[in-house]
Amino acid sequence: MELKLEGGLQHQEYAVEAIRDVFKQVMIDQEAPHYSNPIIDIHSNMFLGNIYHIQHKSRQNVAQKYRAEQPVGTTLCLDIKMETGTGKTYVYTHAIFELHKRYGINKFIIAVPSIAIKAGTSTFLNETYVRAHFKNTLGYDAEINVNVLETVKKQKKGRKHFPTAVRNFVEGSRLNRNKIHVLVVNSALLTTGKMLTRNDYDVTVGEFDRPFDALRSTRSFVIIDEPHTFSRDQKAYKAIVGELAPQCIIRFGATFPMKTIGKGKRKTTVRDYEHLLYDLNAQRSFSSGLIKGVMKEHFEPTSNINEKVKILNIEGKKATFQHITQTTKSSHILSTGDSLSILSPELSGLTITGITKDLVLLSNGTEKHKHDEFDVDIYTSSYQESMLRLAIQRHFETERENFHREKGRIKTLALFFIDDILSFRGDDNGNNAWLRDLFDRLLEAQLKYELQKENSPEYEIYLRASLDNIAACRAGYFAQDNSDADEAVKKEVDDILNNKAELLSLSDKKGKPNTRRFLFSKWTLKEGWDNPNVFTIAKLRSSGSENSKLQEVGRGLRLPVDEYGNRVKDEAFYLNYIVDFTERDFADRLVMEINEDVQTGSLTHISLEDMRRVSALRGLDEMALFMELYQKKYVLDLDRKLDQTKVIDLFAEYPEFNNVTGKIKDRNKGAKDMVKIRKARYEELKELWAQLNRKYIVFYQKDIDQQIEAALPDILANEVFMHQTIQSSRQKVTASEGQAVALQQTGQQYILAGKEMHYNEFLKRACRQTSIPITMLHSAICEYAKTHPMDGYINESSLSAFIAKFNGWKIKNLQNLIKYRQANYSSKSTAFTNADGSLKEEVLQWTIGKNVLSAEPSDEYLYDKVVYDSPLEKDNIMNRVEHVIVYGKIPQKSICIPNITNDLYSPDFMYVVQRSNGQKELNIVIETKDVPNDEAKRAIEDAKINNAEKFFQQLKLDGYDVKFCRQLQNKQMANIISELLEEETSHSA
Question: What are the record keywords, sorted (predicted)?
Answer without folding.
Answer: Endonuclease, Hydrolase, Nuclease
